[in-house]
Design goal:
- The chain has 2 domains: about 35 residues; about 140 residues, Glutaredoxin (3-Layer(aba) Sandwich), CATH 3.40.30.10.
- The chain is α/β, with parallel strands linked by helices.
- Helix 3 packs parallel to helix 4.
- Strands 3-2-1-4-5 form a 5-stranded mixed β-sheet, with helices on one face.
- Strand 4 and strand 5 form a beta hairpin.
- The chain starts with a helix and ends with a helix.
Length: about 180
């Protein structure tokens, strides 16, 4: 009986230690990407040249990758529409660029049309150029905020975490006030 109790305690301790090591690894990974220059694939579909110019000239951009074959991930598009509206209501002109990889474009297009993501520029990235060219294989890193030089200023998905959303809003406010 004592051996079973000891074994259970040992297993729980190991799980906690490994969990902390994973969190430390994520923190280091995030620190390594801050300031890194990101290459945006030249495949973004926009509504007009004016919209493309606005994206190119923006002080900040939020860029995200979504796996279009993951229904939960596609549902995130509605949260992005809400976040884009929130930015607009606060007076911030921060383009949101979404790269989507999917084997079923028609399904994703129907979702996008249903949600009404007019304030979001999106494109299909079948080759996953955004992820592979920038070595953003860790899902934690697949949403970033970049400055006008495409340098990473924040990492994480603001539509999945209120804390991350507040971090993005604070940085947006700080950077836009200084310009």
């Amino acid at each position: 009986m004592r051996f079973c109790s000891f074994a259970i305690i040992l297993l729980i301790s190991n799980a906690l230690v490994l969990s902390c090591k994973d969190q430390d690894k994520d923190v280091l990974t995030v620190r390594n990407i801050l300031g890194k220059t990101i290459c945006l694939p030249n495949i973004l579909y926009t509504l007009s040249q004016k919209q493309q110019d606005e994206i190119d000239q923006a002080l900040l951009k939020i860029v995200s990758y979504i796996d279009g074959d993951c229904s939960v991930c596609v549902i995130q598009l509605s949260f992005w529409a809400d976040f884009a509206n929130k930015l607009s209501m606060l007076g911030y002109n921060v383009p949101i660029l979404v790269y989507i990889s999917t084997s079923n474009e028609e399904y994703v297009i129907k979702i996008i049309e249903k949600i009404g993501c007019e304030k979001i520029s999106w494109t299909f990235d079948h080759e996953k150029e955004f992820i592979f060219n920038n070595k953003l294989l860790n899902p934690t890193l697949q949403t970033i905020m970049i400055d006008s030089n495409n340098n990473v200023v924040d990492v994480g998905n603001p539509v999945l975490s209120e804390k991350r959303s507040m971090s993005y809003l604070k940085k947006i406010k700080k950077i836009t006030q200084t310009h």
